[in-house]
C-alpha cells in the first residue's frame, strides 16, 4: 500500500503559494483563451476548416474532464505533489506536440494530452484548499485564487494576439510549454504536501467513491450550480467572437478589451466576495450571486431578441453575468467540498469533470444552433444560469430534509 507522506511545509499561505495555486487552476483558461485569436491562422496554416480547428477546443475540454476524473483518485492515494509533477511534465510535452503539429488531427490529439496534464493542477488546487481549510475560510482562499486565476482571461487573448503577430501561432503553444516548466519548478520549490495520511483501502474503489459523492445532495447542489455557471461562461466564450466581431463589427484587436473587461469584473467580485464572507455565509452569498446571474441572462436574451441596447446592451449584460461568477465559483466550490475532506481529490475531480462536461455541451450547443444572431449565445447563458438557480433548490431541499 502506498500512502502520501506529508513533508515539512516549505511555505505558508503567503503570496508565493497563492500565486502558484492560482496559476495551476488557471491553466485551463490560459490554454483556451490564449489561442482563440489564432483560429484563422491555424486553419490557414494546416489547411483545415473552421470546424476542424474548433474541434481542437472540444478535445481540450474532453481532456480536462477525463483527466480530472483520473487525477482526483490518484491525488488522494499518492498525495498532491507527485501526481502534479507528472501532470505538468505531460502538459509540457503536449504543448510541444501542439507547437509542432503538422495537421489539425495531430493538433487535436496533442491538445487532449495537454489538457490531461493541465487537469492535474486544477484538481490539486481545489484539493489543497480543502486540505487546509473548510467552510467560509475555504471560500475566502478560493476568492484569493480567483484573483490570480482571473488574470488569465484578461491577459491571455491579448498575449495570444501579440505572440501571434510577433512569431506565429506555433509560438503560442511554445509559450505554454515554457509556462508549464516554470510552474513545475515553482511547484517543486513552494508547494508542500498537504494530503493527510490515510488508508489506501478507502480508495480501493475510486469510481464507486465518485458515484457516492456525486449523488450526495450536499455536494450535487453547489457542484451543479458551479458547473452550470461555468457552462454559461463557455456559451459566452464560444459565441462571443461571432457576436462581437462579425455581428457588431468590433475589430479583432479590440475584442480582447471586451473580453478583458468581463474578466476584470469577475476578479473584482471575487475580492468583494472575500469582504462579504466576513458578514454573510457562503450559502447566502452564493444564492444572491446566482440570482444576479439569472437576471443578467434574461436581460441578455431580451437584448439579443429585440435589439434594444445594441452592442452595449449585450456587453453590459455579459459583464454582469461574468462578474457574478466571481462570487458563484468560490462559494459553490467550498460548499461542494465541505463534507468531503477525506476524499478531497475525488470530490475535486468530480467537480472539475462536471464543469468541463457541461462547458463542452454548452459550447457545442451554441455552435450547433448558430442562426446568424446573438440569440443562441444569449439563450445558452440564460438557460445555464436558470438551471444553476434550480440546482441551489436541490441543495436547500437536502438541508431541510428529515434525513439531514
Automatic annotation (TrEMBL):
Alphabetical keyword list: Cell membrane, Membrane, Transmembrane, Transmembrane helix, Transport
A biological-process GO annotation: xenobiotic detoxification by transmembrane export across the plasma membrane
Transmembrane regions: 17-36, 56-72, 84-102, 141-163, 169-191, 219-237, 257-277, 289-308, 344-365, 377-395
GO molecular function terms attached to this record: xenobiotic transmembrane transporter activity
This protein's record includes keyword Transmembrane helix: yes
Main subcellular localisation: membrane
Family annotation (PANTHER family): MAJOR FACILITATOR SUPERFAMILY (PTHR23502), POLYAMINE TRANSPORTER 2-RELATED (PTHR23502:SF132)
Identification of the protein by name: Bcr/CflA family efflux MFS transporter
Amino acid at each position: 500500500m502506498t500512502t502520501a507522506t506529508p513533508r515539512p511545509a516549505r511555505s505558508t499561505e503567503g503570496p508565493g503559494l497563492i500565486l502558484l495555486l492560482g496559476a495551476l487552476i488557471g491553466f485551463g483558461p490560459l490554454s483556451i483563451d490564449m489561442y482563440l485569436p489564432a483560429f484563422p491562422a491555424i486553419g490557414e496554416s494546416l489547411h483545415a476548416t473552421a470546424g476542424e480547428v474548433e474541434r481542437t477546443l472540444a478535445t481540450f475540454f474532453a481532456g480536462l474532464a477525463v483527466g480530472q476524473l483520473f487525477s482526483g483518485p490518484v491525488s488522494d492515494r499518492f498525495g498532491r505533489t507527485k501526481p502534479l509533477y507528472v501532470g505538468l511534465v505531460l502538459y509540457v510535452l503536449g504543448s510541444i506536440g501542439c507547437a509542432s503539429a503538422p495537421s489539425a488531427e495531430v493538433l487535436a490529439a496533442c491538445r487532449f494530452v495537454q489538457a490531461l496534464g493541465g487537469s492535474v493542477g486544477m484538481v490539486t488546487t481545489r484539493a489543497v484548499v480543502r486540505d487546509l481549510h473548510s467552510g467560509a475560510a475555504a471560500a475566502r482562499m478560493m476568492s484569493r485564487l480567483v484573483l490570480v486565476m482571473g488574470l488569465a482571461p484578461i491577459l491571455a487573448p491579448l498575449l495570444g494576439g501579440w505572440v501571434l503577430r510577433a512569431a506565429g501561432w506555433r509560438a503560442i503553444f511554445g509559450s505554454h510549454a515554457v509556462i508549464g516548466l516554470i510552474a513545475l519548478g515553482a511547484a517543486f520549490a513552494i508547494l508542500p504536501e498537504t494530503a493527510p495520511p490515510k488508508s489506501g483501502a478507502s480508495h480501493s474503489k475510486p469510481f464507486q467513491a465518485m458515484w457516492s459523492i456525486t449523488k450526495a445532495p450536499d455536494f450535487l447542489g453547489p457542484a451543479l450550480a458551479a458547473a452550470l455557471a461555468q457552462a454559461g461562461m463557455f456559451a459566452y466564450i464560444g459565441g462571443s467572437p461571432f457576436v462581437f466581431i462579425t455581428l457588431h463589427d468590433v475589430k479583432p484587436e479590440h475584442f480582447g478589451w471586451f473580453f478583458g473587461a468581463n474578466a476584470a469584473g469577475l476578479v473584482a467580485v471575487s475580492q468583494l466576495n472575500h469582504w462579504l464572507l466576513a458578514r454573510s455565509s457562503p450559502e447566502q452569498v452564493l444564492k444572491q450571486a446566482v440570482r444576479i446571474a439569472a437576471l443578467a441572462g434574461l436581460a441578455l436574451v431580451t437584448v439579443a431578441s429585440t435589439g434594444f441596447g445594441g452592442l452595449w446592451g449585450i456587453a453590459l449584460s455579459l459583464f454582469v453575468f461574468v462578474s457574478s461568477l466571481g462570487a458563484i465559483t468560490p462559494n459553490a466550490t467550498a460548499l461542494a467540498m465541505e463534507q468531503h475532506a477525506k476524499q478531497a481529490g475525488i470530490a475535486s475531480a468530480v467537480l472539475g469533470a462536471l464543469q468541463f462536461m457541461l462547458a463542452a455541451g454548452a459550447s457545442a450547443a451554441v455552435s450547433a444552433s448558430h442562426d446568424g444572431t446573438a440569440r443562441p449565445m444569449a439563450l445558452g447563458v440564460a438557460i445555464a444560469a436558470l438551471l444553476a438557480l434550480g440546482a441551489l433548490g436541490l441543495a436547500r431541499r437536502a438541508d431541510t430534509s428529515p434525513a439531514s
